[in-house]
Amino acid sequence: MARILAIDYGTKRTGIAVTDELQIIASGLTTVNTKELLKFLKDYTIKEEVELFLVGEPKQMNNTASESEIHILPFIDNLKKEFPNIPIERVDERFTSKMAFQTMIDSGLKKNQRKNKALIDEISATLILQSYLYSK
């Protein structure tokens, strides 16, 4: 089997998580500068087989699209052009940042470590991926 890669897209930084080859365990991979995201994905897919891209879908409480969706849709178009053979699915990402922050607290990270926004993005991507795996 190939891996599933989850993307928590942001205008500055993007968190990335990936499954193992058996698609059982979701692990944070990294956070990359969004300007370098497509290059990172190209390099990664050369080394590892990716079966599916999951892209977080930010929604409002009333289930309508969040304002940040205007930045994500052009990225998804570029992703489709660069990787026409890898399907893309969207996953509701409501509360993932808050859950990521709580995860950091629960794991005992000190206050100054919890200010690491890149780590929050990576944990958020992992939560997106875990929710997808649980729903399968």
CATH architecture: 2-Layer Sandwich
The helix content, as a percent range, equals 40-55%
Taking the sheet with the most strands, its summary is: 5 strands, mixed
Query: What would you call the structural class?
Result: alpha/beta
Radius of gyration: 14 Å
According to CATH, the homologous superfamily is YqgF/RNase H-like domain
Number of domains: 1
Low-confidence stretches: none
CATH class group: Alpha Beta
Globally, the shape reads globular
Largest beta sheet: what is the strand line-up? 3-2-1-4-5
Beta-strand percentage range: 25-35%
N-to-C span: 15 Å
Please count the helical segments. Answer: 4
The mean pLDDT is 86
Number-wise, the strands total 5
Give the H and E element order.
Answer: EEEHEHEHH
Indicate the CATH topology.
Nucleotidyltransferase, domain 5
